[in-house]
Amino acid sequence: MSPSWHESLYAPTVDGADLAHELRERGRALGFVRVGIATAKPLTDEAEHLRAWLAAERHGQMAWMERTADVRLDPTADGMLPSAATVIVLVAPYARQAEHVGPAPLRVARYARGRDYHNVLHKRLRKLARFLREEGHDVRAAVDSMPVFERAWAERAGVGFVGKNSCLIVPGLGSHVFLAALVTSAPLPPDEPMSTRCGTCRLCLDACPTDAFVGARQLDARRCISYLTIELDGPIEPELRTGLGDWVFGCDACQDICPFNRTSPPDEETTAPFAPHPRFATTAEELLRMDAETYLDWSEGSPLRRTGRERMARNVVLGLGNSGDRRHLPILREVAADDASETVREAAAWSLTRLDPPDD
Predict the structure, then answer these.
(1) Using CA atoms, how far apart are residues 130 and 76, in angstroms rounded to an integer?
(2) Are both 160 and 304 inside the same structural domain?
(3) Alpha carbon 16 to chain centroid, angstroms
(4) Are 347 and 317 contacting, i.e. CB atoms less than 8 angstroms apart?
(5) Structural domains of the chain, count
(6) Do 28 and 145 share a domain, yes or no?
(7) Could you say which of 134, 158, 184 is where a domain stops?
(8) Residue that terminates a domain, selected from 184, 204, 227
(9) Does a cis peptide bond (omega within 30 degrees of 0) precede residue 75?
(10) Are the C-beta atoms of 260 and 175 separated by less than 8 Å?
């Protein structure tokens, strides 16, 4: 019996090796500087570590990590793609030239200074996903938005290794990179996995301002500045506040000290979408005077939208308190008295005591 029109339209037209080559070429043309391929199967090695991490409640308020654990550990699970045969991992670097960018005098992590990477990379992935579907394969695309264990797959796909700071390190690029993934039914020849290359170095572990590392590749998110400034709702524990320093969204401390990041920065054309945005001409004082709606407008198209106004204002007043600069006393007094959020008012009051301690 001859195939139906529908079957012939979506029947595979190239074999696995040729398809893999074509995907790499298309990925590079879209701006991905590394493309790796791994065979889709349960992540048995990572399962024990993830279960123990969750059992110790080191995920904090990130409840989705527990809800999606089974899917995260198995790309063939019902919640992902039961027909999955391959995981394709793609790498895009981001700008890392400038040291301090943020609402002055504070700063945000380098990855969050430009356009929202979710939007930028999803547009690229959709083109690759469309190509795979045209070749007759099922596919799901993920950019830090689905339960895909991207770093584990990146190791298996040979594009990098997970360092002691739990970040993926790509030799020649370092760890200032975004990861994207395609989970597909296409059977493709896998690449050689990459093993860890950190050796005895522990610079990243010792550099953490809040002592968030329990050990190598063991992060207690509840103490991590990125978690505290982005994910945590409500007050930040007082004993962790000084460790935030001037960070108000994310942190680069454990990456900046890594020897693998002592490479030449990627060319500006490659990282252009993630270069610092003009919105950072806004000062901390101006940001604190924004209401929730104004903040959403200001953070449109940026990763910074994730915090909402309240969490960002909380972070900003804590950063001003850590600055040691008494010129911020007037705005802190204003916020401590009048801000609509109790969390922000309390944080501002704490910062006032840092800059203007009460007399004994």
Answers:
(1) 20
(2) no
(3) 31
(4) yes
(5) 2
(6) yes
(7) 184
(8) 184
(9) no
(10) yes
